[in-house]
Structure formats: C-alpha cells, structure tokens
Amino acid sequence: MKSYGGIALIVALLACVPLLTASNVVLNFMVVALLIALVGQGWNILGGYGGQYSFGHAAFFGTGAYVTAILQVRYGVNAWLGLVIGIAAGALVGAVTGALSFRSGLRGSYFALVTLAFAEVLRIVASVAPITGAGVGTLVKLDLRWEAFQFQSRAPFYWIILAFVAVSLLIVKLIEGSRFGAYLVAVRENEDAAKAAGIDVVRVKLTAMILSAAITAAGGCFYAQYFLFLDAGIAYGPWISVEALLAPIIGGIGTIYGPLLGALVVKTLGEITKLMTGHAPGLDLVIYGAVLILVVAYAPRGIAGLLRRRP
Amino acid sequence: MTEILRVENVSRRFGGLLALDRAAFTADEGQIVALVGPNGAGKTTLFAIITGFLNPTEGRVFYQGAEITGEPPHLLARRGVARTFQIAQPFTGLTVRENIAVGSHLSRPSRAAALAAAEDVANAVGLAPMLDQPAASLTVAGRKRLELARALAIEPKLLLLDEVLAGLNPSELRDMVPVIQAIRTRGITIVMIEHVMQAVMSLAEQVFVLAEGRMIAMGPPQAIAADARVIEAYLGHGAAERMRGAAHG
Lengths: 311, 249
Fold this sequence. Notes:
The complex is a heterodimer. Chain A is mainly alpha-helical. Chain A has 15 helices and two strands. Chain B is about 40% helix and about 25% strand. Chain B has ten helices and ten strands.
C-alpha cells in the first residue's frame, strides 16, 4: 500500500544514517531527535488526533524511565523485560490520570493543568523517595552487552530508537484508517456531536491516553538505557513535557509525520543556537518560544500543513 | 399504533427558573410529531432531557416501552435515538463525507464501509455534490442538511429534529420538506421542534404546544392553529379575543 510505503521509505532512509557517518556527534544528535519524535508521537495521538492537550507527558516518560532503571538496579531484572514493564507502567499511569480527569469531565486548559500537576507531583515524590535515589538519582550499571540493552557504539541505539519511531508511525497509520481514529478526531472536533453519534467519549479519550502514555513511556525507557542516569528533574521534569508537545505542534499537529519533522527541526534549531551563542544557558529555549509563536501565528497546522498546501 | 416515545411529567429547574413544568407528550411509531411554542418555552431543554444530555429534576422518559431517564447520549444513540442540534454542531475540520461517516461507523467497524454508507446518506438529504467539501465551508442550509445527515447515519428509529428548517429561505424550505417526508416514509418516527408553521402544518400529524415549560395544547395542526390558548401564548393575553373581533368586524 502506498501509505505504508511512505513509512517504509522514510524509515529506510533514516536507517542509512549510521552507514554514512560514524561521527558520535551526528549520531547522538539523531538519537535525541528520534527520541523526541517518539515522545512527540505519543503526545500527538492524544493531543493532535484527540484534541486533549497534555502539559504533563513527563509523568509517562519518567515512569517508563524510572521503572526500567529501578527494576535493573534494585531487583536485577533484565533490561528488555524492564522495557516491557516500563511501558506497561507508563500506560497504567496514563489510565489512572486519564480516568480521573476524563470522568470528572475536565477539558481544555483544565485538563492541561491537571496533567501538569500530576507530572509535578511525581517529580516531587521522585525527588524525595528513597527508591528513586532521591536527590542523588539512579545510575544504571554499565553493562555493554545487547542482552542488557546497552551497546558499545551509538549505531545500535540509533537503530533501536528508529525502530521504536517506526512502530509509532505504524500505530498512528493504523489509527488513521480505523473506526477508533474517526471517533478520536470526532471527539476533538465536537464532543456533543460525537456523543449524539453514539460515541462513548470518555472511553475514546481514555484509550487514546493509554496508547499515548505507553509510547511516551517507551521513550523514557530508552532514555534510561542510553544515558544510564536519571534524577527527578530529568525523568519527571517539565523539559520533556515541553519537548513532547513542541515537536508535533511545530511539525504538524494531528499529522502522522508532524512529530518526526518537528523533532528534527526543533533539535537542529537548538544545535544551531548553541553553536552561535556559545552555549549561553537557556537561549535555545528562547528560540523555541519564538519559533512556537511564529508557527502558531502563521502555520497553525505546522510544517506539514505548509507542505500540504502546495500541490 | 405502538407508542415509541413517552415523556411523563418532566420538570427541569435551572436555579430559580423552572424551565420545564411537568411536561408530557407521546409519539407513535411512524408519526411526525411537532413540538412548537414561543422562544424560551423549554423545547430544546426537553430534547436535551430525552436524548440524555440533561437529567430531569423530576419525571420519566420511556422509549420503546423501557425507561431511559438519565441514560447517557451515546447509549441512546446506539438504541436508535438520533438528534440534531439547534445550532449546527459539525465536525468543522472534517469533510462532509467524514462527518457523516462518524455516524455510519456505529454499525460499521470498517472505515471503507462507513465512508461508502455516508455517500448513501448524503444522497438522501441532497448533500451529494458537497461530499468532499470541508464542513466549515457549508452554508446555513448546507449545515442543516449535514445535521440531518449525521443523525440519519446512525440509522435511527426515532429522530429528534431541533429547528432544522430555521434560517432557510423559502426555496431551501421547499427543498427540505420532501426530504423530511421521505425519512418518515422509511419508517423513522420524527419529533420536530419547529417555528416555521407552514412546514409544521404540512408535515406534522400531531402537534404539542409548550409555553413557559408547560404543555398547553395538543392535537392535529389545524385544531392547534385555531386554539385560543396557543394564540395567547404566542401573541399575549387577550390576543385571541382581539383576533376574533377583527375577523368578525
């Protein structure tokens, strides 16, 4: 099918990057960009397709990261099993926060604030709880074997995060062509009309939130394996919530390639800023803000929306 | 004839305002029933209660003999109760076809089947030429048709139309009346809130008049139009008297 061909082509092209360069700087940049693309795609399912803007995707990212790390460090669980459990734990956090907020009918900015609050609560708990290492953080033991989901070089990491991104693209493609996808978009466009059409709005939102949380948690698990260190500010900090929504909004909200496109653009901009300003702290965030304002003002459908307008 | 809808003494209070005061009416299967009344009479509130968007303060609603009071809208939709909204509520970002397909999905899990079924519904309400237009680009008449199409797409047994003819010009009105007649011919019971009396007269078999939350009259359209209480409700106290005087003098 043509539509799946698009995904195959993009993934195949990206898969060639480590064959063209062995530069750690380039690969590291690409790994981080793809990680943001993955987390952004998670956000995009709920925010872009479902219209439920979360400001707290850190809650899922951090849960995935901590569960993977803690299971390995404290319970000697295999990293790959940790990955599966981490994703499940993230989905569970999504189910609980989703059930609480959607059942009480929170919409729009109220939903955004509640998700932000959940993430902040988790961040504060993680910064004092002994199991997360509190202020010291959690170090995943260096064990450079593929069985431990760790690798000598960056290329395998790159291919693994690319595979995650590919799976997330496939999931979104399947959603787009399904009844669930049609219902999700209907809920975004008009909840009352959706109810009148026989849609169980709470259930649709909850399903989207669980999927969204699971994908974002997968990003968290990967982060733990790649950087081997976590603290509360990294795992549950607002930075990842911001990255998660910035990539799809800039790339094209509610579009399948939006998060990937947005992540690459945002990360490239960030790198250029760092080079030009000599790592002045926080300046990349200023640039992010400016780009966000420009996108919202002139291209509300993001880069993907601009591209589509041209025949 | 079998009764499909029964509203029993439904009251609804919004703070100090009694929007509905023991309103009651019934609709038989295959009928077109009109619900008329001055602005603010509580017609839309009554619709919202029947379709589960609001709970009544008091009273009960029965559909096909079973009580449905307080049942959520999506479950009622699955049982065959469809509604349109007075202010059209399209899925603005979607095309006409996608809008209708959302309803068609109720009995069709497959996307292709739902999109195909949407086309049939669009034909029935005269939206076929606009199928691939964005819903946001439709005119008022187009939006009203889309409301109707989306409600029909769930293949209802009972269809509640909230002013689908309001805001249409005379020629659009002439086009729309046969569409509604055709829906009834398919065996769908219609309850319509309507201000366009010409349409009520030509379509409805039974008319209920709501004023200040109370059902003040019921009967066939001709009888209702001559009913003194109805004239008073619309035109004010003493109006019936003056009209009779004017007719004789």
